[in-house]
């Protein structure tokens, strides 16, 4: 790997313009081009894997934003170049080995999530979102205060908090990071995307589970479905974890658990409370006649 990707304090992505050496990916018409040789050297071997065909018009129109997001993420949040390494592995498996076809799409989705959205990458994406989200939708402005004063019935299911916005931003960022591998696979296998198909949504669906966590913890006894305590402050739990040197256990569904022995000797664990962001979006957009899958 050529040199170290030393992280400096990140500016916000809005208004950021990459320097020449930060252009890991670039746009070439309808192509997303990844300069693997900038990271790994050996251009004579790697250039054949550099081009991701996008193909879908709505994503071609967003390609500049996708390029900006990937370059920004690599410049400030991915010192190990996990994302670029994943891109290269995916491209090799698609173009050289031809491992993935339309028939084993579920296996390809699993492969993408193992590489792009492992716990380290999820933490990096969340850090990027935290650093860039400067808004506060929970403090009502004058117009919202008037609305709430006149509203007789408050629908909590339609309320969005800062945490909800951050979850949506993390999902949106992940969709951009996934765009190259997703659409190159579709173009490589000549997969048709008729109106109303759920193929693209199948690639995105697990993102709602990966990022749909609150800032509070809950406690479960091993084997039980209902928590024995909830809404526990992060500082309290993180202090307990540190004092007792508890290592995280990563579950296949994306949960991170911290196991310990309860006072009665039973096995218990802390984990972040879940937020079903898909259901929340479903309620919200259906009030206005939209479809969650079409929003993606």
Task: Describe what this molecule looks like in 3D.
The protein is of the alpha+beta class and 296 residues long. It has a domain at 214-274: Chitinase A, domain 3 (Roll), CATH 3.10.50. The chain contains 13 helices and 8 strands. The strands form 2 sheets. The protein has a 5-stranded antiparallel β-sheet. A 3-stranded antiparallel β-sheet has the order 1-2-3. Helix 5 packs antiparallel against helix 6 (105-116). It is globular, with a radius of gyration of 21 Å.
Distance between the termini: 35 Å
**Which topology of the domain at 214-274 does CATH recognise?**
Chitinase A, domain 3
Helix content: 40-55%
Biggest β-sheet description: 5 strands, antiparallel
Mean pLDDT: 88
Question: If helices are DSSP runs of H or I spanning 4 or more residues, what is the number of helices?
Answer: 13
**Mass-distribution shape:** globular
Q: How would you classify the helix and strand content by structural class?
A: alpha+beta
Portion in beta strands = 5-15%
Order of helices and strands: EEHHEHHHHHHHHEEHEEEHH
State the gist of this model.
The protein is α+β, with helices and mostly antiparallel strands.
Task: Describe the structure using short key phrases.
disordered C terminus; 13 helices; alpha+beta; 296 residues; Chitinase A, domain 3
What does the secondary structure layout of this molecule look like, with pairings?
Elements: E1 25-28, E2 31-34, H1 36-40, H2 43-46, E3 51-53, H3 57-60, H4 63-76, H5 82-96, H6 105-116, H7 119-132, H8 142-150, H9 162-188, H10 199-211, E4 213-221, E5 229-232, H11 234-243, E6 249-250, E7 256-261, E8 267-274, H12 277-286, H13 292-295
Antiparallel strand pairs: 1-2, 2-3, 4-5, 4-8, 6-7, 7-8
């Amino acid at each position: 790997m050529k040199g170290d990707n030393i992280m400096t304090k990140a500016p916000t992505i809005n208004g950021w313009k990459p320097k020449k050496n930060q252009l890991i990916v670039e746009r070439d018409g309808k192509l997303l081009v990844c300069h693997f040789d900038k990271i790994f050297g050996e251009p004579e071997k790697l250039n054949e894997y550099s081009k991701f065909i996008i193909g879908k018009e709505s994503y071609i129109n967003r390609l500049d934003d996708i390029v900006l997001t990937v370059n920004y993420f690599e410049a400030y949040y991915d010192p190990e170049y996990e994302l670029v390494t994943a891109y290269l592995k995916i491209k090799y498996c698609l173009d050289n080995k031809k491992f993935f076809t339309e028939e084993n799409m579920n296996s390809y989705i699993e492969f993408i999530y193992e590489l792009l959205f492992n716990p380290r990458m999820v933490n990096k994406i969340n850090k990027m979102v935290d650093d860039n989200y400067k808004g506060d939708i929970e403090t009502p402005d004058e117009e919202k205060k008037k609305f709430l004063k006149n509203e007789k019935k408050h629908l909590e299911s339609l309320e969005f908090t800062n945490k909800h916005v951050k979850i949506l931003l993390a999902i949106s960022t992940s969709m951009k990071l996934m765009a190259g591998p997703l659409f190159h696979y579709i173009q490589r296998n000549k997969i048709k995307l008729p109106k109303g198909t759920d193929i693209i949504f199948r690639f995105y669906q697990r993102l709602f589970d990966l990022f749909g966590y609150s800032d509070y913890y809950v406690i479960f006894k091993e084997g039980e479905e209902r928590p024995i305590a909830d809404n526990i402050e992060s500082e309290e739990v993180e202090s307990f974890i540190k004092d007792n040197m508890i290592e995280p256990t990563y579950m296949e569904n994306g949960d991170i658990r911290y196991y310990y022995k309860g006072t009665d000797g039973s096995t218990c664990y802390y984990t972040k409370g879940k937020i079903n962001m898909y259901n929340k979006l479903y309620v919200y957009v259906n009030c206005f006649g939209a479809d969650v899958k079409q929003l993606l």
